[in-house]
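Minutes, project check-in
Item: structure for the 264-residue chain
Input as provided by the requester:
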Amino acid sequence: MPTFLYFAKKGLDIPSELSKALSKAKIRLVSENDLEKEGEAPSAILVLGGDGTLLRAAPYAYRLDLPILGVNLGKFGFLTKLTLNSAIEILENWEKTKLYFDEREVLDISYQGKSFVALNEGAILKGPAGRTIKLVVSIEKEGIEEGWFEVLGDGLLVATPTGSTAYNLSAGGPIIHPQSQVFVITPICSFKIQIKPVVIPLDFKVRVELPSAEDEVHLLIDGHTNILLSSGARVEFKKGEKRIKLIRDPRRGFFLALREKFGW
């Protein structure tokens, strides 16, 4: 009997049609809270809701090396790639269905000896006091510094190709195809308007230092992990060791999603 780790948008019940498909395939659902009690490792992660719910599941997918079956029952659903009907079609014949995956690069973000996984982005942001912050950004490859620059403004973000259509896009960054082997550094409301987003190769590392902080400065990871940074903080961004697999409908591609979600 397959076991799926299960995430759902708060207050959302499993649709009856989907529940029937799960029963037909004899798939058992376990929550993140019950995961450690289970003797059997899950086969996949089922996400019901929107992109925020999927981003909450992403660290589990990375750590456990599980594919995500994301069903769009939210408002936007750019990452939750499957319609309810497509998901039912896959689940009813889970053991026999040929699966198609989008493999997505992730960021490994480290601060004070702790590592965090971001499917979309890590953003360093000023607090509610409203003052601009100064950040020093260094870019290196194989331990050799390639260059550095300063950002004075509301902050900056480092985004994956997957995250390029999220916060990065709202901040004026470019749309990047998810198969591209790059990251993007995007300043947020930079005081110097000539400081623009920069796309860097995947094997480069980015180090962001906060020389001083009179007010609150936060590290926000994928919109759900919020860390208060101290003066002199150093945050490092690099490519994750693994990719996250998103189960997709082969009839629906990236440019179709752009047309549907962004009106291309």
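Outcome recorded: The chain has two domains: 3-105+243-262, 107-239.
No further action items on this chain.
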